[in-house]
Write a structure and sequence with these properties.
The complex is a heterodimer of chains A (about 290) and B (about 230). By secondary structure, chain A is of the alpha/beta class. Chain A is about 40% helix and about 15% strand. In chain B, the strands form two sheets. Chain B has a six-stranded mixed β-sheet with strand order 5-4-6-3-8-7, with helices on both faces. In chain B, strands 1-2 form a two-stranded antiparallel ribbon. Classes of the chains: A alpha/beta (about 290), B alpha/beta (about 230).
């Protein structure tokens, strides 16, 4: 059982977390949903396409425009309220590292705090506990928020990701977050080279074996682009290949830009694994 | 050319350093780390030639190797999983120095490594038997703040700072390197900030040649030969 705020999902469900950026400068959509109405239109489309979760972000992950806490609050809190009102059955996640933002969006109806900078603000755990929100433990190797990696080195990147995320998960539970509401995320590209992200994908079963539900955020990232030597707008196929491998290894939640394609891959892999019957199988059965 | 300097021993000693080469310390100098492509092939070739040219004029090479800085990790495991040579866990700069010497087909015995950690000076490479000449292999990069995707993002102060380093390397102006603004260099993530200063202190003036300067990933790389 995975409990995300107001919502619960069985252990065999693979969930799509669709990205909604209320930013001007995110690497993929480049401000397309910065305006609140454009963002709400995107949420409507994502829900129609089958996303179980939307992940709302007010600050670009990489370096860029400085976004103060006040501005981040302005971009996220009212928007969360509007989405909550229109879609009571949708899981609302907010991508933030600031506990004051986490507190305000939980009060506004968020179910999940996607703490993408790995517990940078220790008070975030208390906020998740206080609001009975779910919490994502991200492996960032102690990186400073929005700082790109530079000549990072690991003895064993998978062991490091497991150690840090599981430690954070236990801290979250100790702080009062429900054990069924804690996810771990190896955080592809965050403080990692392409080699590291490929190895994390190859060995994702080791993270799954910890027993904590695993979230992966693969969508159109640099490790896909560098592997195939493709710009951001041509990385969908590579993203879906990594998605399929992650699903085969047992990841549970997929943070993605493209919902329809991601859902098809997850359904296909689930059927190959034998956890989902085919949608319509009449071939040679008539 | 020998220059009297004040060394760690009492009284003036003879400076054994008669030449120096400056090279970057990017992991991309390992051919395999970039995958199928080899974006820094030209830089690697120039760096290797320059190391070879340095070795041709001196008895010994001492590599000044930055460690313990952002961009100059103390231990470095190559992300590709490949291990080169006998120092797979050594500081990145030491591994790069070994690699360049290897590519230059120089015997390992010709060189010694002098890790340069933070404010601590390098080991006592100045103490030599009389008549021995030493070439410094100076590792380090310029600023890492020259583009959107650079490790330190864009910092406009990086451009004049790298110009200053490049001008000094091209002119053989050791005094300019010796007096680099260390605080600003730290903010701009200059891995060569201590080793460039060491070079400047050791060779206040030299006949110089700047053989490479570029910033393909927002980090400044220099190759220079001083004699």
């Amino acid at each position: 059982m995975l409990r995300l705020g107001r919502h619960a999902f069985g252990d065999d469900r693979l969930l799509v977390m669709a990205i909604v950026n209320r930013t001007r400068d995110s690497f993929y959509d480049k401000g397309a949903t910065y305006a609140e109405d454009a963002a709400l239109d995107r949420v409507r489309r994502l829900v129609a396409e089958g996303a179980e979760i939307v992940d709302i972000g007010g600050v670009k992950a990489g370096p860029g425009e400085v976004v103060t806490p006040e501005e981040e609050l302005r971009r996220t809190v009212g928007f969360v309220e509007r989405v909550r009102t229109e879609f009571p059955d949708l899981v609302i996640s907010v991508d933030t590292w600031r506990s004051e933002v986490g507190r305000a969006v939980c009060a506004a109806g968020a179910d999940l705090l996607n703490d993408a900078w790995g517990g940078h603000d220790p008070a975030m755990l208390e906020v998740a506990a206080e609001y009975d929100a779910a919490y994502v433990c991200t492996h960032t190797h102690g990186a400073t928020p929005r700082q790109p990696p530079h000549r990072v080195s690991y003895d064993d990147v998978v062991a490091a990701a497991i150690r840090d995320t599981v430690t954070l998960a236990e801290r979250a539970v100790a702080a009062g977050v429900c054990r069924d509401s804690v996810l771990i995320d190896p955080a592809h590209d965050f403080e990692k080279t392409t080699w590291h992200s490929l190895e994390l994908t190859r060995r994702l079963d080791e993270m799954v074996a910890t027993g904590w539900p695993v979230l992966v955020s693969l969508s159109n990232k640099d490790f896909v682009g560098e592997t195939l030597d493709l710009p951001t707008d041509q990385r969908l196929t590579g993203t879906l290949a990594a998605t399929a491998i992650s699903a085969w290894h047992g990841a549970r939640v997929y943070r993605a830009h493209e919902v329809v394609e991601t859902r098809q891959v997850l359904d296909m892999v689930a059927s190959i694994r034998g956890t989902r019957p085919p949608a319509r199988a009449t071939r040679a059965l008539a | 050319m020998s220059t009297p300097i004040t060394g760690p021993m009492s009284g003036p000693v003879t400076n054994p350093v008669t030449a120096a080469a400056v090279v970057p310390m990017t992991p991309l100098l390992f051919r395999e780390e970039s995958g199928l492509a080899d974006p820094l092939a030209e830089l690697r070739e120039i760096a290797v030639h320059t190391v070879r040219d340095l070795a041709a004029t001196v008895d010994r090479i001492v590599a000044l190797c930055p460690t313990g800085l952002v961009g100059a990790p103390d231990t470095y495991h190559r992300p590709s999983g490949l291990k080169g040579g006998e120092t797979p866990d050594a500081p990145l700069s030491v591994q790069i120095a070994h690699h360049l010497l290897h590519l230059a087909a120089l015997p390992a015995e010709v060189a010694e490594m002098a890790p340069r950690s933070g404010e601590n000076g390098p080991s006592k490479w100045q103490e030599r038997p009389s008549g021995t000449t030493v070439g410094l292999l100076v590792l380090g990069d310029g600023t890492a703040c020259r583009s959107e995707a650079a490790p330190g993002h864009i910092d406009e102060r990086a451009f004049p700072f790298d110009d200053l380093i490049a001008d000094a390397l091209e002119a053989g102006d050791g005094d300019a390197l010796a007096t680099l603004d260390q605080d600003l260099a730290e903010q701009l993530m200059v891995t060569g900030r201590h080793t460039f200063a060491d070079l400047g202190t050791t060779l206040p003036a030299a006949r110089a040649e700047l053989r490479y300067r570029d910033d393909p990933y927002g980090v400044s790389y220099f190759v220079a030969l001083w004699q």
